[in-house]
């Protein structure tokens, strides 16, 4: 599979990108929701990551029955994992606007039209996210879901998201994103294979000042037992892995910043975003030092930076992992 960006004369206005893996249970419902859009996309790219169920066949049969849209359906030679699979699929998109699509949600009919309008009206944005409706495994709609309350909305307003200490914590799921392909091409050289697609796009747009949010639901966000993004762990080793990832992301964000033109770099610097990235990275370095070696000096340095935690609970969870490194907490 090539990981270079799609180039050349096949460019179109809009692409939907979907990564599939053993998703036959909900896949057809999602595909059908794409075909009842008020504004149909020009292209749908589907990358199957060696599914062992009928996912690949479902997509191929559906595509052959809906030739009014251009389809690019392919299966990887080997299982790449969801992060590399989504990255490779996005690289194959030709659309000026790239819509990210999970295999198990249901798009509302105005999804494409609403997000295209948001981008058309806000040409300074590279990434727009949206609110969602929540759909639990049984198929019932709910008003609340643990950890996802912020994703719900309904004002219909478009806001520009500023860079604060929480920029590494992706606030809205990637399945709500519409991204300019020009921005994907800019960030692609700094996109590591182990980065979640939504995280690198969200964080890079956030520090650049080109991240926006549309506070109205555009899809039904399904939560079920096999969601790839729902996995959680709370051991010392897992915390160290997470912090190492955050530091790797920060290094890529700083490299991306340094690749920008002078005027763009100056604007980002003047916004305070780079100071924020460096402050957060120093905090993550202190976290990693304490997690790796629980000396009084390392713990004191972390306590001094405890104001950088999003919540007191997160700080206490780190302390528990530092003081009891061999224990694993289950949630």
Question: Mind explaining what this structure looks like?
Answer:
This protein folds into two domains: 12-230, Alpha-Beta Complex (Spore Coat Polysaccharide Biosynthesis Protein SpsA, Chain A), CATH 3.90.550; 234-329, no CATH class. The chain has helices spanning 24-34, 55-65, 82-91, 111-121, 181-187, 197-208, 236-259, 262-270, 273-292, 296-304, 312-323, and strands at residues 12-20, 43-48, 70-75, 95-101, 106-107, 127-136, 141-142, 158-160, 178-180, 211-223, 234-235, 328-329. It is of the alpha/beta class and 331 residues long. It is built from eleven helices and twelve strands. Helix 7 runs antiparallel to helix 9 (273-292) and helix 9 runs antiparallel to helix 10 (296-304). The longest helix is centred in the C-terminal third of the chain and has 24 residues, at 236-259. The strands form two sheets. Strands 1, 2, 3, 4, 5, 6, 7, 8, 9 and 10 form a ten-stranded mixed sheet that branches. A two-stranded antiparallel ribbon has the order 11-12.
């Amino acid at each position: 599979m090539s990981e270079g960006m799609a180039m050349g004369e096949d460019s179109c206005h809009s692409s939907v990108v979907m990564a599939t893996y053993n998703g036959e249970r909900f896949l057809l419902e999602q595909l059908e929701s794409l075909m009842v859009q008020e504004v149909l996309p020009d292209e749908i790219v589907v990358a199957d990551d060696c599914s062992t169920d009928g996912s690949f066949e479902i997509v191929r049969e559906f595509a052959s029955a809906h030739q009014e849209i251009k389809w690019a359906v392919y299966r990887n030679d080997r299982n790449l994992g969801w992060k590399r699979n989504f990255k490779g699929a996005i690289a194959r998109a030709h659309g000026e606007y790239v819509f990210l699509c999970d295999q198990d949600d249901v798009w509302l009919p105005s999804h494409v039209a609403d997000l295209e309008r948001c981008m058309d009206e806000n040409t300074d944005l590279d990434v727009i996210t949206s609110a969602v409706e929540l759909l639990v495994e049984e198929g019932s709609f709910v008003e609340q879901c643990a950890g996802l309350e912020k994703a719900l909305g309904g004002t219909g307003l478009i806001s520009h998201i500023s860079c604060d200490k929480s920029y590494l914590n992706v606030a809205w799921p990637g399945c709500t994103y519409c991204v300019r392909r020009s921005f994907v091409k800019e960030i692609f050289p700094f996109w590591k294979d182990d980065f979640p697609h939504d995280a690198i796009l969200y964080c890079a747009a956030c520090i650049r000042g080109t991240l926006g949010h549309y506070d109205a639901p555009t899809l039904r966000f399904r939560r079920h037992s096999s969601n790839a993004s729902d996995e959680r762990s709370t051991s010392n080793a897992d915390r160290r892995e997470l912090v190492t990832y955050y530091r790797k992301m920060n290094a890529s964000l700083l490299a991306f910043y340094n690749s920008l033109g002078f005027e763009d770099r100056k604007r980002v610097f003047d916004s305070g975003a780079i100071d924020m990235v460096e402050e957060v990275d120093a905090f993550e370095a202190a976290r990693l030092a304490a997690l790796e070696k629980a000396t009084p000096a390392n713990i004191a340095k972390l306590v001094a930076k405890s104001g950088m935690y999003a919540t007191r609970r997160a700080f206490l969870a780190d302390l528990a992992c530092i003081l009891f490194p061999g224990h694993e907490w289950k949630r």
